[in-house]
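Amino Acid Chain and Its Fold in Token Form
===========================================
Purpose: to set a sequence beside its fold so the mapping can be learned.
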Amino acid sequence: MVRISVDLNRCEGYGQCVFAAPSAFTLHGLEALTYLPNPPDEMRDAVHRAALACPVQAITVGVQDEPAGTTSRADRHVVVVGASLAGLKTAEALRERGFSGPLTVIGDEPHRPYDRPPLTKACVSEKLPPDRLELPVTRTLDARFLLGTAAVGLDTDRRLVRLADGAAVGYDTVVIATGTRARPYPGTTPDGVLAVRTRDDAEDLQRRLARQPRRVVVVGAGFLGGELASGLCDLGIPVTLVEAQQAPLQGPLGTTVGGVMADLARSAGVDLRLSTTVDEFVAGDDGALRQVRLSDGETVDADLAVVALGAVRNVEWLEGSAARVDRNGVHCDDRCRVLDLEGCPLPDVYAAGDVAGLPHPLFPGRRLSVEHWGNAVTQARTVAHDITRPSGEVPSPHTELPSFWSTQFGVNIKGVGFPGAADRIAVVQGTPGQGSFSVLYGLAERTVGAVTVDNGRYLHHYTALVREGAPFPPEFVTSDENTSPVVRPTGR
């Protein structure tokens, strides 16, 4: 079986892959791409042609990862705690940089590393089996995978990772990549109320959707909640989307983009309840969900609800260790080195991905934790570079900008930087609600973020403005005659 992944941050919707391998790649609307992560072997040649045809080289075609037996026992032992995207990419980057020592990857789930974004996208709207999401590797890792056993402690003095089964794994260098878990609903929940964060969660959701629920209530209209609601609409299942704020995506993107998404959701048939929360999930005599009582006094009949209230960083296993952690993650320096309780780097301890909190040049003095796919990949490269660099080589700090994408209700949202930190936005292309458009985000007279809606081919230009902290409002003249360059509050 072929394994592929597409970096949808880089994808610009040219669609060359669709022409080369139409059974593996599909373009929805103007630029929203979906794909089969594990197409059958007979499609191997077509998939390779698609990868070669991609103008931005966003497609990765994997190789078989079989033990090669070539590791050097004389080299130091690297242990990666966390078998998801950041953990896998760290292992891969280490091998790419020539690391030949023993490599161990520890994961609390029983599955090999898999891609999480499709859990709320293709696994819902296209009924893609979650067991088809294993992430590809571009080279043999020759790593030992310890799966299905969680790490419960880190002893930096003895250089040990302690596991839930009572075992301990020694290390010379350790990388913390334990990511996040779904934030639970802060109250009691009957059967039929679930979250979707893992492969097992997605399989549970698929089983329940196969029973044709009367209505599904999605709690939270962030990226994940919006994608779930969109996928349920594609299946023809009635959906109510409940959001405490004034607009979907208001926290990360503000009310201008959020207002457009609200209109799209309603047009798709979503029963959208804004400035509303859930007061109670009501169970029937059988203990299963029957109704959802809302803060506006109304009651919604439903036999399935999905809670999408964000994520909690998995740092509890580090309590009592020398690592400095809080609810915002593991404190790191700009090289992804984990800091101790005094703020000094711990020897040979690193962190990458959602769990890591790093400084960034755009926000001096602040530590930022970013829960985006691309951030896990770039931090993994930073970690691997620092572990393997010769003593005379200059360190390479992590200065990459976060980037993200979301496909929902027929449009493709792409962004870069820190839109959630801004206090003003400027529409620089198009008109919100009238097709494709782009907006820039500003804070303290500097550009700190950019978002495009069905306009991703222009994002690289705005990325350069964000990276240099260009003046805000922007001084350039837009090329779109229909654009009214209005600066407005983000609306949070």
